[in-house]
Write a structure and sequence with these properties.
This is HTH-type transcriptional activator RhaS. By secondary structure, this protein is of the alpha+beta class. The chain has ten helices and ten strands. Strands 1, 2, 3, 4, 5, 6, 7, 8, 9 and 10 form a ten-stranded antiparallel beta sheet that branches. Helix 7 packs antiparallel against helix 8.
């Protein structure tokens, strides 16, 4: 199979089999960000020319080789590659394996980092994933978000992109400002906007526009002001709303799911359990046990 593709500043020429496309951002309209989670077939080669920034996680490759700048990098274990702007890499493999790739176009890098692409200090590297386990978790979180329908829109993938760009920055990509914060009116505006649109997808750009700042500044200032990222804040508020609706005793769990902004009961249950330590049904049982009884007729 021969595939030629250009997306998000990345040109790919693949000669090999793709056994399955597990997740893809194609058709979602993410601005300057692309993601794929695929199972590659028994063997093949791929040529990658990256104009933006490229992050990839390979899981359990039997035999994988990268050729970059006259050097080869061989792996037979989970690994992570980061490609700087302008990098050209040839990859070959033998044996099927899973690969997750996040591509950030030049304009998206500049929007997220508040810096021009020419000032990026991200450098191409090939490392075992055990040395960057957080990256593995972040890329798999994007795949899981796609699987459940991306209820927050592009917010998670934008947050992951910002985190990875900062993590691999050599010092200039993400301006090192000391604790930028939101003003009280900005924080209030964001809180009101998020709560009013809790059941709708949001993007970092939408939030930044609402308070008249850049995406890069918003990412840093929101975390400083609220103590969590915008994505984490929205998930927390969705669980809070679900708890309030459960406690009211007027709706079933299936009715609460969309009202709290979740795509399905499974997503609500996983998020609820992760943030509260218990599933929604356990919270429902407790709410019923502690709910006051009606007035007696005695």
């Amino acid at each position: 199979m021969r595939i030629d593709q250009s997306e998000c500043g990345c040109t790919i020429e693949l000669d090999g089999e793709i056994e399955a496309v597990l997740q893809t951002s194609t058709g979602l309209g993410w601005s300057g960000i692309g993601f794929s989670d695929i199972m590659l077939g028994s063997q093949g080669t791929v040529s990658i020319v990256q104009q933006g920034v490229h992050f990839a996680l390979s899981l359990a490759p039997p035999s994988q080789r990268f050729l970059w700048s006259g050097q080869t990098y061989d792996f037979s274990e989970d690994n992570i590659i980061v490609l700087e702007p302008g990098a050209a890499v040839v990859e070959s493999w033998t044996g099927p394996f899973r690969t997750l790739t996040l591509r950030v176009a030049p304009e998206a890098v500049e929007r997220i980092t508040d810096a021009s692409l020419t000032k990026t200090q991200i450098r191409t590297q090939f490392v075992p994933s055990r040395s960057q386990i957080a990256v593995s978790h972040l890329l798999q979180a994007v795949s899981a978000d796609l699987e459940t329908g991306c209820s927050t829109g592009p917010l998670l993938v934008e947050s992951v992109s910002a985190t990875l760009l900062q993590l691999f920055s050599g010092g200039e990509t993400m301006p090192r400002r000391t604790g930028p914060t939101l003003t009280s009116p900005q924080a209030a505006t964001l809180r009101e906007l998020i709560l009013a649109r809790l059941a709708e997808p949001l993007s970092l750009q939408h939030l930044a526009d609402a308070v008249g700042t850049s995406v890069g500044h918003l990412v840093r200032a929101f975390k400083t002001s609220f103590g969590v990222t915008p994505y984490q804040f929205i998930l927390r508020e969705r669980v809070n709303r679900a708890q309030d609706l459960i406690a009211s005793g007027t709706l079933s769990l299936s009715e609460i799911v969309p009202l709290a902004g979740f795509n399905d009961a499974s997503q609500m249950s996983k998020t609820f359990r992760r943030l509260t330590g218990q599933p929604p049904r356990a919270f429902l049982r407790r709410a019923r046990e502690t709910r006051p009884l009606g007035p007696s007729n005695g």
